[in-house]
Specification:
The chain is mainly alpha-helical. 77% of the residues lie in helices and 0% in strands.
Length: 149
């Protein structure tokens, strides 16, 4: 149970830092008048940070050869991440951080329900039911409220 609580807290913290990341990236993009540079810089610094972390973990870099066995489609994840960061940098100053992220979360929930329902990408199947759909409906209601006020 303690492990589960740790992961719940980790997920909340991960979500909490995204608006901060967006704000910082927006500032960087404005300084050079190019939001895509901010996304690039974010990924570059993140890459360096992750590389340093791998060294601290004493990661066995010889295992990288095993990535040849994965489908080439999995490498699209990096492009999707870059698209996400760039889109948030562009959208946050125009829509506001709250509306941007509630729309992002609504999109995440909609696709997550489909991924879960069909067990896509090798993930466990979790059927769509009325309770899960109601949760998405509440998110949409949140979007409407945030947009109006």
């Amino acid at each position: 149970m303690k492990t589960q609580l740790f992961f719940v807290i980790l997920a909340i913290v991960a979500g909490a830092v995204l608006p901060l990341q967006a704000g910082l990236n927006v500032q960087l993009g404005k300084s050079v008048h190019q939001p895509i540079f901010a996304a690039f810089a974010s990924f570059l610094i993140g890459t360096v940070g992750l590389l340093l972390y791998l060294f601290v973990l004493k990661f066995d870099f010889s295992t990288i050869a095993q990535t040849k066995t994965v489908s080439p489609v999995v490498w699209i994840a990096g492009i999707l991440g870059a698209f996400y960061v760039a889109a948030v940098i562009i959208l946050a100053p125009r829509l506001g951080v709250a509306l941007t992220f509630v729309l992002v979360v609504a999109g995440q929930m909609a696709v997550s329900l489909v991924v879960d329902h069909y067990g896509l990408l090798g993930l466990p199947v979790k059927q769509i039911n009325w309770q899960r759909l109601f949760g998405v409906l509440l998110l949409v209601a949140g979007v409407v409220l945030i947009r109006r006020f």
